[in-house]
Design goal:
This protein has about 350 residues and is an alpha+beta fold. The chain has one domain (about 30-225, about 235-345): DD-peptidase/beta-lactamase superfamily (Beta-lactamase, 3-Layer(aba) Sandwich). It has helices at about 40-55, 90-105, 130, 135-140, 155-165, 165-170, 190-200, 205-220, 245-255, 265-275, 335-345, and strands at about 1-5, 60-65, 70-75, 85, 185, 225, 240, 260, 260-265, 280, 290, 295, 305-310, 310-315, 320-330. The protein has an eight-stranded antiparallel sheet with strand order 3-2-15-14-13-12-11-10, sandwiched between helices. The longest helix is centred in the middle third of the chain and has 15 residues, at about 190-200. It starts with a strand and ends in a 5-residue tail after the last helix.
Length: about 350
């Protein structure tokens, strides 16, 4: 899918809401009654009843307000310790790691050319536009490569990448359809390049770097992350986490990259990641895209999320000090957002 990229709106993007006295759930989420955190318990119960009684394919639902777990439920056979495939919500984790790698000095900036990290391929790239393709273009899905990706992924670019013996070489070999930065085109291959360049820049696998810089500080262990034929952790999908650990990632961004007194990733990166850089086409026509994070329009609050196939969502609403996680197996991946809008948000006071 492709549509002209929309520039960042002229009006200033609001900063994330100033955090309240933070709770830090590295070893477990502190709990509180909904009414203690400004949530109508009857409305919240009705929202969960809607999920429980509906045929939505929801696996789990997890609600955090002001750093306190106020409600969670798992639907058979899923349990709190069930690791679930994030699908494309993996992309948002890749974005966090890119910010950390810049902070650690492994990457100069988002303006660094992508081909800097693949010297064995760069000499064979004749199209000068590929030499102008930067990390920022990968992050915002505006790389300019000729790419088609759409469920059910039969014969599309992603399926061809998976069938190829070298995924990175396949992506970089794609023709250029647009000047980098000009057009939004959803491209899981671009996300895989981000993982591959992380691997090249840090000298360790994306998973190893994530375990050291992100997962261990957040108390996330036993992570599974699939790899390509060269052993590169897949950038566009492939990561599996529990619902509780997914919520930790959302909470890290709610707290502007801080975790228990340590700035794991800069607040400036969190803001840049969740700023509207491009506008999507179908199936999320009119939604915003940041640095591998989605921005949901037409809601009364600023909302951003990590989003994956079949309804995996890490939703962050800074103005409400709220993180909501859905995992599901729904053919309509937007069903959780409809439940959020129609059933959960009315419960928030």
């Amino acid at each position: 899918m492709a549509t002209p990229a929309t520039p960042v709106p002229a009006t200033p993007t609001p900063e994330l809401a100033a955090p309240r006295a933070a709770q830090w759930p590295a070893t477990g989420w502190p709990t509180a009654a909904p009414e203690e955190q400004g949530i109508d318990p009857h409305a919240l119960r009705a929202a969960f009843d809607t999920v429980r009684e509906g045929d939505f394919g929801i696996n789990s639902l997890f609600v955090v307000r002001n750093g306190f777990l106020v409600a969670e439920e798992y639907f058979a056979p899923f349990q709190p310790d069930s690791a679930q495939h994030l699908f494309s919500a993996t992309k948002s984790v890749i974005s966090i790691l890119i910010g950390m790698a810049i902070q650690d000095g492994y990457i100069r900036s988002v303006d660094q050319p992508v081909l800097d990290f693949f010297p064995e391929i760069a000499p064979d790239v004749l199209d000068e536009r590929k030499h102008r393709m930067t990390i920022a273009h990968l992050l915002t899905m505006t790389a300019g490569l000729d790419w088609y990706e759409m469920a059910p992924y039969n014969g599309d670019s992603m399926r061809q990448m998976i069938a190829s013996p070298d995924w990175v070489a396949f992506v970089l070999a794609q023709p250029v359809a647009h000047e980098p930065g000009a057009v939004f085109c959803y491209n899981s291959g671009a996300s895989h390049l981000l993982s591959a360049l992380l691997h090249a820049a840090t000298g360790q696998s994306t998973l190893a770097y994530a375990e050291e810089r992100l997962f261990a500080p957040l108390g996330i262990a036993g992570v599974s992350w699939r790899t390509d034929p060269q052993g590169v952790n897949i950038g566009g999908w492939g990561l599996s986490l529990t619902t509780r650990d997914m919520a930790k990632l959302g909470y890290l961004y709610l707290r502007q990259g801080e975790w228990d007194g340590v700035q794991l990733v800069s607040a400036a990166w969190v803001t840049a990641s969740t700023t509207w850089h491009a506008t999507s086409a179908a199936p999320l026509d009119g939604w915003g895209y940041g640095y591998q994070w989605w921005l949901i329009p037409d809601l009364p609050y600023r909302v951003f999320e990590a989003r994956g196939l079949l309804g995996q969502h890490i939703v962050v609403i800074p103005d409400l000090d709220l993180v909501v996680v859905f995992t599901s197996r729904s053919e309509n991946g937007n069903t959780p957002i409809e439940i959020l809008e129609n059933n959960l948000l009315p419960a928030i006071q």
